[in-house]
Specification:
By secondary structure, this protein is of the alpha+beta class. The chain has nine helices and 17 strands. Strand 16, helix 6 and strand 17 form a beta-alpha-beta unit. The chain starts with a strand and ends in a 6-residue tail after the last helix.
């Protein structure tokens, strides 16, 4: 095996990549502007360190890869695993997974298919990762080519972050991206999708051919937004993004089923069903103002109350199999309905 240099150009799905002592650390926010993303407990930055949807992409004829890594902390107990997972996909297909337990430093993939191929090496969705070194077959080539696939940016909560997914390439955004050959940037931040204006600027400044915004559920339980503030924040988020994406298709997706707050008001008198009503109204107002590429999807089409009852023991977060059902529902309700002309299978 021979060592190959990990370069910043290999990373896809990261908003920025930080050069740290010993390697590269991907971020899903601009790491040089960390001070502009404050929260009371710095939780947004912690989620932005998690590598959900981030991968290395390169062409090679290698049949083996060894990746020297540093992964952060203990495995999230909600995953039911004792290790962090890395995936290799080739031509949309998941080929192999490798596990790295806390304290271990190598993710290894053996017996990959012979011949030239485009490899995507997906990083753990539930951890920050530092990539230190990569080795491939002694005689193998490796090139990094521009990814010319349509770029899809999706913003959301833990329901987009998907720490409970079977593995990194099996989050619902990753499933959709692989199915339609999209270059994914997943801005799913567990507990932290609060329609922050700074996220609007981040999305505005990213290259994108498709944008989906799944908004609301993180703002309901603690009353972060009310019936007075939710709709204006959603509208403002879209208008910020439109500054540099005037014609890019944007789909607003309201919250999925959430039994505890469907009709029970939160501390500021708001409900999830009220959010769905108000986000639909936001979409209609933007369309009436001339936005011809703005669409709305009811979150109950993405995951219904009946599906929550079957697949989410906490009445909120689908389990790993439920996440795969969520991918199918999202495909039908969003991609096939609104975006099929912009993507290719």
């Amino acid at each position: 095996m021979r060592s190959v240099e990990i370069s910043e150009k290999m990373f896809e799905g990261a908003v920025s990549v930080e050069s740290v002592d010993g390697g590269w650390k991907p971020w899903r926010l601009p790491h040089t502007e960390k001070g502009l993303f404050p929260s009371s407990d710095e939780a947004l930055l912690a989620r932005a360190e998690n590598a959900s949807g981030v991968r290395l992409r390169f062409d090679s004829d290698t049949t083996a890869i060894a990746l020297q890594v540093g992964v952060g902390g203990e495995v999230n107990p909600v995953t039911g695993r004792d290790a962090f997972l890395f995936d290799v996909t080739i031509d949309r297909e998941l080929i192999q997974s490798a596990s790295v337990k806390p304290g271990e430093t190598e993710a290894r993939f053996n017996e990959l298919p012979f011949g030239d191929k485009t490899i995507e090496l997906w990083l753990p969705q539930d951890s920050h990762v530092i990539l230190c070194e990569m080795t491939i077959d002694d005689s193998a080539s490796l090139t990094v080519l521009e990814d010319k696939r349509p770029r899809w940016v999706t913003y959301g909560s833990s329901l987009t972050h998907c720490v409970r997914a079977h593995s990194p390439a099996r989050t619902w955004p990753a499933i959709i991206a692989r199915r339609y050959e999209l270059n994914l940037t997943s801005l799913g931040f567990g507990g932290q999708c609060c329609l922050d204006p700074m996220l609007g600027f981040v999305i505005r400044d990213l290259p994108a051919d498709l944008i989906t915004l799944k908004l609301g559920i993180n703002c309901i339980a603690a009353g972060h937004l009310s019936g007075r503030t939710y709709a204006p924040n959603a509208l403002g988020l879209v208008r910020i993004i439109r500054e540099k994406h005037p014609e890019t298709p944007i789909v607003l997706v309201s919250p999925i089923g959430h039994p505890p707050t469907e009709s029970t008001p939160n501390p500021v008198g708001y409900t999830i069903s009220g959010m769905r009503r108000d986000l639909k109204d936001v979409a209609e107002r933007l369309q009436a103002a001339g936005d011809e590429n703005l669409y709305y999807t009811d979150g109950l089409e993405v995951f219904s109350l009946a599906e929550i009852a079957e697949w989410a023991t906490d009445e909120c977060h689908p389990n790993a199999d439920g996440i795969e059902l969520q991918a199918e529902n999202f495909d039908r309700a969003v991609i096939q309905r609104f975006l099929s002309n912009a993507v290719e299978r």
